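Re: that chain you flagged

S.,

Sorry for the slow reply, it's been a week of failed gels. I finally had a moment to sit down with the sequence you sent. For the record, here it is as I used it:
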Amino acid sequence: MSQVIFLKGLMLGVALAFILPILLPPGRRWRVPGGIVLGLGLGLGIAALVPSGYLSYFIGFMTMASIYAILSLGLNTQWGYTGHLNFGVAGFFAVGAFTSALFTIEAPTGLAAQYTQVLFGLKMPFVVGVMAAAVVSGAVAFLVAVPVLRLRLDFLAIATIGVAEIIRLIFQNERWLANGPQPLRGIPQPGRCLFETRHCEWVPDSLAWIIEPLSTRDYTAFYLMIVAGCLALVYVVLERACRSPWGRMLRAVRDEETSAAMSGKNVPFARVQAFVVGAVIMGIAGALYAHYTVAIDYSHFHALFATFLVWIMLMLGGSGNHRGAIVGAILVWGVWAGTAFLANALEPLLAAIHQDLPGRAQYIRWLLVSLLLAAVVLFRPKGLLPEEMRVSRYVPDPKRR
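Prediction finished late last night. Pasting the structure tokens below so you have them in one place:
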């Protein structure tokens, strides 16, 4: 095994070591160490055995699946635990992406300033951009939650769709804010200098020789490691929070709001809290997406792509179950990616039927995803991993040994 394959496999293994302990059965002592060992072994094995092209595709697939898993976790906090029918996921996704981009991008000067207009370019570190995305998304969610959360179910869904469309149209039409309808390019990527000819200044010379063989095409594995680490961190924080009295209060508000209020719980404040926390997580996912794609515009945050696909992920995995939200994200993104190959394969057949049909082959993807959602609602309404009825770690569960 060459040094490049080993390093790339090691980075992939670290990313899988973040994800696999989440997917393994809970309540087992070997879950975390077993997942770490299995992840490292799989990463090295995949890098050694899989051809370079397929390996790059797998890394890109896992990166997008992990970003969508974070989105699904944010929606699970709002819908799965509190019952908020939020159809405005795309709005908070966009706020997080553009906020992190504006905080980390360098303000254009000279001729470039005529083609790229931004409100500000602070050239801050990646961590600052992600934190700013979380804070701004949470602030926007708070401003939205105060009037909107007075509504219920279908009215709440309509209101959140409207909010998401307003946010998208603002980024589309206000050129001074984030380059308007033109893509906002040049979004920096964390640690990119490690893979360029000129290495990062903060890397000591004693370690520079280790990463010397790596090139820019190997960066995707490094970024997958960052996204997987963020996914694991969000999962652990949410698991702790939702198994605490705060999480049980959210479930009580969702199931029986009147009884929760009679028990002394501040129901309106609890609803706002859950809505803001979910939006913060969606903002983090948006920041990770922006730094992955390097260039973003308003078209990336369409409701079909950034809202309803997330809902299908959560419904398939299991509403009210964090592991289910992640499993559903990976499975549905696999279906979405696989249907792209199917649509391309069907283009010759469609062309033989009518000359205009090949241009509509992409609609087959949405048809198959819609059939998947219908099958889930009919045959597994609680999802693949249903919500756990016993969430407190201080109450023993007889099913776990």
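What I noticed first: Residues 5 and 48 are 6 Å apart (CA to CA).

Talk soon,
D.
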